[in-house]
Amino acid sequence: MGELTGKVALVTGGSRGIGAAIATRLAGEGAAVALTYVRAEGRAREVAERIEADGGRAVAVRADLTRPDDAAGAVERTVRELGGIDVLVNNAGFLAYGPLDEVSAEDLDRALAVDVRSVFLAARAAARHMGDGGRIISIGSCFNGRVPAGGFVLQAMAKSALVGLTKGLARELGPRGITATVVDPGPIDTDMNPADGETAAFQRSLTALGRYGEAEDVAAAVAYLAGPGGRYVTGTALAVDGGYTT
């Protein structure tokens, strides 16, 4: 039996990359898992089907978490179909890149909506159903601690705001035994940022280990925070960045 046997987790943006790795890892630890998607229905269902083929329970849920009704609906469906919610992983994100003069007001609104607003809405909805031992874990960015090049104003701003939101959640929900944390990945080999991409050599050079991480490295950190080992960790960020911020 895994450390999360009997628990229920909701992973936002769980159809690919880091989100899919997190959903799979939590399921491997025994949790029943709901995972959200906006457009990639086929990929989300593939992740859920793989989990079920391995003996787990999973459901794919279409939801735009920037919308209050969708955020609440994803939580309610998780509770209804899987029996509750113990762990919320806010993984859905918006990669905003571009020179300051080229950043539009729409880009600004989108970055805040996906990286901050959706987390607030999902956390608020999930906390209503969580009891002692509940976990809210959000996926941030190494840009919280280091911005080594231009073009990442929106990314650094939104993910830093996520840390402030998490500290507020930790303080408010702590008396109920609910923790709130952030995991800050560094360069991770995904289809959005492949280890053989145009900027990969530069990104590797910024890490102490000199290499990219894998999505499973982030998933392992989330599993730790979601499990018994993370019970006294709250209001803080855990860097999984190969020494990017050293």
Automatic annotation (TrEMBL):
Record has Oxidoreductase as a keyword: yes
InterPro entries, sorted: KR_dom, NAD(P)-bd_dom_sf, SDR_fam
GO molecular function: oxidoreductase activity
Superkingdom to which the source organism belongs: Bacteria
Keywords for the protein's UniProt record, in alphabetical order: Oxidoreductase
Ketoreductase domain residues: 7-191
UniProt key word Cell membrane: no
Family stated for the protein in its record: Belongs to the short-chain dehydrogenases/reductases (SDR) family.
Protein name: SDR family oxidoreductase
Originating organism: Streptomyces actinomycinicus
